[in-house]
């Protein structure tokens, strides 16, 4: 299929003939997740990203078109790229270099990082700007015991030489606070990454509110947090490991907006 034909298909909003059923299903759920982020206020104009590996193609990713807001992302206009940023599906849309640097580094170096999410919410950036980072002082932070890495701020993330340092900072953690910047999460599925990120962002929101109040902060005993993290239902495969949470939000989205399916 030549680029003009594919562009017309993307403009009309339908599945290209060379797109497998598995890839299309992944596109639909990823596009829905972008709309969920928009619904939650996790969007940043046309910036930030959620990336997902293409099913059965470990070295290919789906990413949002650079220039569209999150509530404009659809299954057909998502861009398929390789880890170098080469566009593989003839999309007329470019890819944000900053998104490529952060996301490709994680996907390329963490085998089960099938989804990577990055946000700049007010609460998350505020906590990222604090020397001590996230405090363990609430029910949400207590579910993230020993799950968070930190990466020092190096400016706008568009330089390839930062990738190795970022991956080294991440280590074996699922979550990372990018100092002075925001949050990053990766997971085995969209739902897994989402519930991790939601919990960390919620902990940041509580910390932001707590620091606006008088009095001393009541910290959680690390032994309690360790147990709380083990007991957290949202990470339990029996409860979908985040998939049930994300699916519920997509059902809410479907009651008002199904354009992501185009």
From TrEMBL:
SUPFAM superfamilies: AraD/HMP-PK domain-like
Superkingdom of source: Bacteria
Annotated InterPro entries: Aldolase-II_Adducin_sf, Aldolase_II/adducin_N, Aldolase_II/adducin_N_sf
Pfam families the record matches: Aldolase_II
Signal peptide range in chain numbering: none
A molecular-function term among this protein's GO annotations: actin filament binding
Domain Class II aldolase/adducin N-terminal: 28-208
A single Gene Ontology CC term: cytoskeleton
Family (UniProt): Belongs to the aldolase class II family.
Protein name in the entry: Ribulose-5-phosphate 4-epimerase/Fuculose-1-phosphate aldolase
Origin species: Paraburkholderia caballeronis
